[in-house]
Amino acid sequence: MKTIAILGYGTVGSGVVEIIGNSNRRSGSGIDISGILVRNACKYKGHSHFKSVTENFKDVLTDDVDIVVEAIGGLHPAYDYVRRSLESKKHVVTANKDLIAEHGAELLEIAKSNGVELRFEASVGGGIPILKSVSDCLAGNSIESVTAILNGTTNFILTKMEEEEMQYDEALKLAQELGFAEADPSSDVLGLDAARKLSILSTLAFQRKLDWKEIETKGINAVDSSDFRYAGLNGCSIKLLAVSRLLADGVYASVSPVIVKKGSQLGRIRNEYNAILVEGDAVGDVLFTGKGAGMMPTASAVFADIADIMNNRKVKAETFDYDDAFVKTQWENEAKWMLRIRTGNRIGIMKDLTGRFSNCSILAGECGEHGDEVAAFVRAGSEAEIDCFEDSLSQEYDVRDFRKMMVLEQ
Ligand code: NAP
Ligand code: HSE
């Protein structure tokens, strides 16, 4: 019999309680839930485990507890509770990417020095068993790249905007109601959540410590219906992609909206689903996909960590003790880009575009919501070339807005 304390009884915490109570599961018989920590116990009157609910952390960190599940979220008080649990020689399982991206290295060291485990499979990709796969199942590979949809909320919003012409605010509200979004959804829509997940995944994949704050991060808050229309003219859709590549002199890492072919492996991923395309030198491309957010998918990943601990199964995702990665934020290779330029001189900009890029297709019939836009697809040798072009245009013309979006051509 193992005794488990659960911190947080929201979307993830209640899913974990449900799986523990489910006799159909294939592993982990003999679990006792000793306590559930919440912020406001009154909310849980009538819940099956109401008698175990408390607002006091000391009530749940009792001597008999073997495993603490942290499903509160954010850094405070989660960091303090996880640290105190590890120091009290309790194993910890968490779904908290904010915590692991910020304090993972330190907490893993504390776990090690106390002879207990800190597990965080649910922190990346929701129900997709990605961390264990990258660390253990692909151990024979040098991982060369990760190209992924790592945030369920934003993929849900983009799907609803594209397929149902739903307004951004309405789609976000729905994602919140379904339990996909973070307590502060700006983490989702600004790309921060995906950047934190990319840093955890890439640290394990490349065995170089990636600071999530160094990742170039753009969210979906500026994506509009014209972006979808222009992408659609080329048979493409828009996804918030988290991309990292191992380079000879560092790691390229970015999170941004990217144009992808509709029928491609990533273009087909809809709603709250996530997908992670990993490229290894031995295995080639491997695609992992499944529900990246939501109660039961996330609880499934949390429970797998609990079962591993109960069965004494060790995994390799147990250290972030690697050298820091030198993070590069500019794409240095040739790529296709969509450019949208708002200006008082459309003719001049069009001339400059065709003069500068030999491979340039201007969406001639499109002039944007305000009638002052030039939209084009161009091929450039590097991102720096696009930025240089933007600088030169700004010096010559009245440029009201300049937007670039990369096109993934796989
Ligand atoms: P949630 O629904 O907002 O639940 C949070 C729970 O923590 C609530 O029960 C809340 O209590 C409790 N709590 C909050 N602050 C507290 C405090 N100061 N002291 C004690 N208890 C506190 O959040 P969630 O969606 O389950 O997310 C939990 C974690 O899992 C986050 O790290 C999130 O990023 C991660 N995660 C979520 C998903 C998902 O799909 N939702 C997927 C993967 C990972 P009250 O109910 O009393 O307010
Ligand atoms: N808010 C997160 C998402 C939850 O939408 O992906 C899963 O980590």
Structural features, described:
The protein is of the alpha/beta class. It is built from 13 helices and 17 strands. The chain has helices spanning 11-20, 57-60, 78-87, 97-113, 130-137, 152-164, 168-177, 186-189, 192-206, 225-233, 295-310, 346-356, 383-396; strands at 2-7, 31-37, 53-54, 67-70, 91-94, 118-119, 143-149, 216-217, 236-247, 250-261, 273-280, 284-291, 327-328, 335-343, 360-362, 373-380, 399-408. The strands form 2 sheets. Strands 7, 8, 9, 10, 11, 12, 13, 14, 15, 16 and 17 form an 11-stranded mixed beta sheet that branches. Strands 3-2-1-4-5-6 form a 6-stranded parallel beta sheet, sandwiched between helices. A hairpin with a 3-residue loop joins strand 11 and strand 12 (284-291). Helix 1 crosses helix 11 (295-310) and helix 6 packs across helix 7 (168-177). Residues 8-13, 37-40, 43, 71-73, 77, 95-97, 122, 126, 179-180, 182-183, 293-294, 298 line the site of NADP nicotinamide-adenine-dinucleotide phosphate.
Secondary-structure map:
Blueprint: E1 2-7, H1 11-20, E2 31-37, E3 53-54, H2 57-60, E4 67-70, H3 78-87, E5 91-94, H4 97-113, E6 118-119, H5 130-137, E7 143-149, H6 152-164, H7 168-177, H8 186-189, H9 192-206, E8 216-217, H10 225-233, E9 236-247, E10 250-261, E11 273-280, E12 284-291, H11 295-310, E13 327-328, E14 335-343, H12 346-356, E15 360-362, E16 373-380, H13 383-396, E17 399-408
Parallel strand pairs: 1-2, 1-4, 2-3, 4-5, 5-6, 8-10, 10-13, 10-17
Antiparallel strand pairs: 7-9, 7-11, 9-10, 11-12, 14-16, 14-17, 15-16
The protein binds NADP nicotinamide-adenine-dinucleotide phosphate and L-homoserine.
L-homoserine (HSE) binds next to helix 6.
